[in-house]
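Friendly challenge for the regulars: who can give me the structure tokens for this chain first? No prize, just bragging rights.
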Amino acid sequence: MYCSDKGVTVVVTDSGSGHNTDFILSRRAYAKMAQTTYAAELLLALGVVEVEYRRVPCSYPSNNITFKIDENSSNPHYLAFVIWYQQGKKDVTAVQLCETTNLSCKLLDRSYGAVWTVVTPPRGPLSIRMLLSDIDDGEETWVVPINDIPQNWKAGDIYDSGIQVE
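First reply, four minutes later:
Bragging rights claimed.
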């Protein structure tokens, strides 16, 4: 009634916490599903709606996987970062943070969406290992970026991993 038959592609970084919500969309993404501007206003007023969806691979041809240090991070006590520009159809299902000097690693917690956290992160330059999982065939692969997070990282910093995956 309000939605376009053409469909829309959105990047989903988190899912709903309740049993009646699959995705949490921004107002802009939600409104893009509508046929017209007026229909978008009516659609937004509904709040939760049923949608048909299918998963498609993400594509960021000019970007490497990037790590943005969360604003709540505090070196050396707490580190949280979000993973940007991961393309393809695989999910990041685990992340390890390793000291580059002695390769001592810690498994990070997934806070929500693409945000990974650790209390008392290892010291020194930090290497990240990501486990990529394909939900279609069950294949899992550990990926190690070329670039490390430097020892003097701080909240708000953005680091290019030097790699991209398919």
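The helical segments are 27-32, 37-46. The chain has a mean pLDDT of 90. Your move, everyone else.
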